[in-house]
Design brief:
The chain is mainly α and about 325 residues long. The chain contains 13 helices and two strands, in the order αααααββαααααααα. About 30% of the residues are buried.
Length: about 325
Amino acid sequence: MVTDEEKREENRRKRREKKQQIQKLYEEVSPDFRGKEEQWQELLKALDQYSYPAVEAILQNTPFENNTAFINEIISETHAAVYNEKVFIGYRRMLENNPECMFADYCRGIYRHKALDYMIREIKNLNNPLYAADKGDGNRKRTGSGGWVLVRPVHDLSDRELSAEERFIQHYVDAGVQSSTNPFHIIFWCYSKILSVILGQTGCNSADTWAWEQMQSRTMNELSDGFVKLFNSTMRAVRIKWGPEYLKRLAEPYKDRPETMGEIVLTNEFTQQNAKNWVARMHEKAIKKTGEMIYRSHDVELIQMAEYHFQKKSGV
């Protein structure tokens, strides 16, 4: 009888073989990948097989889980994104900092980015508290992707008082996004400490690794815009926006280069090893700032909740 560990090892072996196959195909089509249609189609097929589980993981515990039509639309958009010289340039830059990075893993990050971006378009309506969730009264209609869009506004919750939990989250996230800390540190904290939680990715081996995969090939502007959109569309009454200092830094030239910081791809500039302490430091700063804001608010219920969190040394 085959044990669970033997099954896992067999799956790991198959994934290693698939990665090696993709790397060989990449070398066949690079650097001049145009005009090699047969090899290119074979490469896309192999990338789909390797990356499909990652797309499914992104959609897990969302309204789009197991929605084959939705996943196929994501993959179609990803094909258009991957068939781009910038992807090959970005991968070669990645190799400068991480020579062991394989093309399969680099592209899997793009598949995951597309899954997140595509999900944002529809989850905004599905999770928006201004809309009804009744499946049987004609308030919803099918989208082209097979998902549901809610079409009848029910009530405006903009004046509803936030719960203590929501106020705590608001203070914690604001403490980071409104800070003057290094934007690279802030955005990595946002993806590792916050997005990994609200998207249900905390079961993965490492939130930092999950975040790093999401950030592949994306500029700071793209990461920043994506975080705010996804957070605000997934959470309900809690709303966030970037602080003026953060936005100012993104608009400034990066070092002595012609690009602004917002145009920089973080994962091309640093390795995951470089970023290993960023989240812990940001979390510590955010918790300290959160405590200061809460105690100044004289919010008894929130102060009691904060004391519980701080005493237990837990995060959000």
